[in-house]
Design goal:
It is a single chain. By secondary structure, this protein is mostly helical. It has a single domain, classed as dinb family like domain (Four Helix Bundle (Hemerythrin (Met), subunit A)), CATH 1.20.120.
Length: 163
């Protein structure tokens, strides 16, 4: 599943007009551009770094807190195409690293310490990585669909995605 996310996002977002990638769902919500920046930040600071902490230190070393809003600064001045390229490169590197870890069943049961959630296993971390991707694909789809809220006219009654 993790190998597919860059391709899905590229198919959805590459070459789209700025209005499509910069619109959000209202105050304190994220545009597709923002979501992609958030995914990039996660590739750099979350999944593999936390997996390494679990494998090397276990519960003895808590994870660094994750900045859910870092993308607003880190993505400034970028284009959607640049973000797509960066995300794809980082994901490929992270999946290569994950494969090189040669994780076994015992490794997946190893425990780390999340700063808010407490004890978590490596298996849960990897499952969360997948679910996190899927949740943000849904978010991007919903945000883009809502741009048609008025345009669909009476069909809005059948389209819960447009709100």
């Amino acid at each position: 599943m993790l190998t597919r996310t860059p391709h899905v996002l590229r198919a959805m977002l590459q070459g789209m007009p700025q209005e499509w990638v910069s619109e959000n769902e209202g105050e304190k919500t994220w545009s597709p551009f923002d979501v992609l920046g958030h995914l990039i930040h996660g590739e750099r600071t979350d999944w593999i770094p936390r997996a390494r902490i679990i494998l090397e230190a276990g519960e003895r070393r808590p994870f660094e807190p994750f900045d859910r809003y870092a993308q607003f600064e880190e993505s400034q001045g970028q284009t959607i195409e640049g973000l797509l390229d960066t995300f794809e490169d980082l994901r490929l590197d992270n999946l290569r690293t994950l494969n090189e870890m040669r994780l076994g069943a015992e490794d997946l049961k190893k425990i780390g310490m999340h700063p808010e959630l407490g004890k978590v296993t490596l298996e849960e971390l990897i499952a969360t990585w997948v679910a996190h991707d899927l949740g943000h694909i849904v978010q991007i789809s919903r945000t883009m669909a809502r741009q048609y809220r008025e345009a669909v006219g009476p069909w809005r009654a059948y389209l819960s995605v447009v709100g």
